[in-house]
TrEMBL record:
Alphabetic keyword roster: ATP-binding, Ligase, Magnesium, Metal-binding, Nucleotide-binding, Purine biosynthesis, Transferase
Species assigned in the record: Domibacillus aminovorans
Job of this protein: Involved in the de novo purine biosynthesis. Catalyzes the transfer of formate to 5-phospho-ribosyl-glycinamide (GAR), producing 5-phospho-ribosyl-N-formylglycinamide (FGAR). Formate is provided by PurU via hydrolysis of 10-formyl-tetrahydrofolate.
Record's subunit section: Homodimer.
Gene Ontology BP, a term: 'de novo' IMP biosynthetic process
Family listed: Belongs to the PurK/PurT family.
Name of the molecule in the record: Formate-dependent phosphoribosylglycinamide formyltransferase
Enzyme class: ligase
Binding site for Mg(2+): E261, E273
GO CC, one annotated term: cytosol
Length: 388
């Protein structure tokens, strides 16, 4: 692309979601630089160039950004030196969606206090704790069962349900082992008995705020295993969900796509958390919408209009996870899996497996959500991972 005066994006985090963002950016002639903490990360395999750095090291992050001078800095994970992004934004760099958004969503405390205390959105009751003793006190205040999570973690790492005061120490130890960035602070949340949970993909672009059809999902150990679109909701529930999404995304600002996580309960809709970037449960949009969540993110970032988002067919996704740690592995059964009508597989190409690590996703589109879920389940059942 030597003759093309291309815009340049720098992706901070290069997992499976970033890989699709890079592909969509390249479709619009954008130069792509992928960054992560390890080499051969999924997005690095498709980007024009890549770098391996510790993104929590502000000085290293600044040095790389000053060297590459990207037009857009696109965080793909939470664990980044966001204070440095705030400084860089003041110096004229464009952080997606805004440096403030990345800073507030970097840990659970910032975004939870904004949602509950500043915006007054309904959330689970919560407390924070820095030591085991403080945690015991917090659990007593919230009551059991409750959910305990490191303030900086994702995909359920370090998360556990604490069912009685005797479980507190086990939960504390799990949080200490699973948290990113070596922070010891944890959040304790009231356990919400929801009817269902959804991700409402919300887009801020030059065309205003728009929403994708709600995505329903099922999580196991705090990580998603299945998602589908559209999730069946009443008009009133959709309106309530969109109101919550509008409030939180307006407060974060900027252009891009957000994944607003909501619990649907008998007492209305609760805000859970928000990703200021494409969401794992939203991979289903690769087969359901005219523009996937990744295409939408890039289009919004570049300042292009998004007059409408079309849901073409109902669809579903199922994750394929590893259950052993290995630097040499193979995904078997893809051939059989693809015999299922309208199924697709995305193999992320991560260089190693870890216990519980997501390695691939199966997608299916059909005439109904029920059929797509059934077909995705069937297609995924043929895929196994062998470790050598
Ligand atoms: N307070 C709660 N009550 C009931 N269930 C909860 C609560 N908090 C979390 N969960 C369950 O655990 C899942 C993961 O929680 P959460 O989204 O906070 O973790 P995460 O590590 O940020 O995940 P991700 O990065 O995948 O979004 C939720 O989708 C929900 O199923
Ligand atoms: N729930 C957030 C999420 O799904 N994030 C996605 O997982 C990657 C990390 O995967 P890894 O932990 O297997 O390296 C991230 O880079 C992002 O693509
Ligand atoms: Mg979540």
């Amino acid at each position: 692309m030597s003759g093309l005066k291309a815009k340049k994006i720098m992706l901070l985090g290069s997992g499976e979601l970033g890989k699709e963002v890079v592909i969509e950016a390249q479709r619009l002639g954008v130069k792509t630089v992928a960054v992560d903490r390890y080499k051969n990360a999924p997005a690095m395999q498709v980007a024009h160039s890549s770098h391996v750095i510790n993104m929590l090291d502000g000085a290293a992050l600044r040095k790389l950004i000053e060297q590459e001078k990207p037009d857009y800095i696109i965080p793909e994970i939470e664990a980044i030196a966001t204070e440095t992004l705030i400084e860089l934004e003041k110096e004229g760099y464009n952080v997606i969606p805004t440096a403030k958004a990345t800073n507030l969503t970097m840990d659970r405390e910032g975004i939870r206090r904004l949602a509950s205390e500043t915006l007054g959105l309904p959330t689970a009751k919560y407390e924070f704790a820095d030591t085991l003793d403080e945690l015991k006190e917090a659990v007593q205040k919230i009551g059991t069962p409750c959910v305990i999570k490191p303030i900086m973690s994702s995909s359920g790492k370090g998360q556990s349900v604490c069912r009685s005061i005797n479980d507190v120490e086990t939960s504390w130890n799990e949080a200490m082992e699973g948290g990113r960035a070596k922070k010891t602070r944890v959040i304790v949340e009231e356990f919400i008995t929801f009817e269902s949970e959804i991700t409402l993909l919300t887009v801020r672009s030059v065309s205003g705020t728009t929403y994708c059809a709600p995505i329903g999902h099922i999580q196991q150990d705090g990580d998603y295993i299945e998602s589908w679109q559209p999730h069946n909701m009443t008009e009133a529930q959709i309106e309530e969900a969109e109101n919550v999404a509008k409030k939180i995304t307006d407060a974060l600002g900027g252009y891009g796509l957000f994944g607003v996580e909501l619990f649907i309960t008998q007492n209305g809709i609760y805000f859970s958390e928000v990703s200021p970037r494409p969401h794992d449960t939203g991979m289903v949009t690769l087969v359901t919408q005219d523009l996937s969540e990744f295409a939408i993110h890039i289009r919004a970032i570049l300042g292009y209009p998004i007059p409408a988002i079309r849901l073409l067919r109902p669809g579903a996704s199922r994750t394929i996870k590893a259950w052993e740690e290995s630097t040499s592995y193979h995904l078997d059964g893809i051939e059989k899996s693809l015999e299922t009508l309208d199924s697709q597989v995305r193999l992320f190409g991560k260089p190693e497996t870890k216990v519980g690590r997501r390695m691939a996703v199966v997608l299916n589109a059909a005439d109904s959500v029920e059929q797509a879920r059934e077909q995705a389940k069937q297609a995924a059942s043929h895929i196994t991972i062998s470790y050598k």
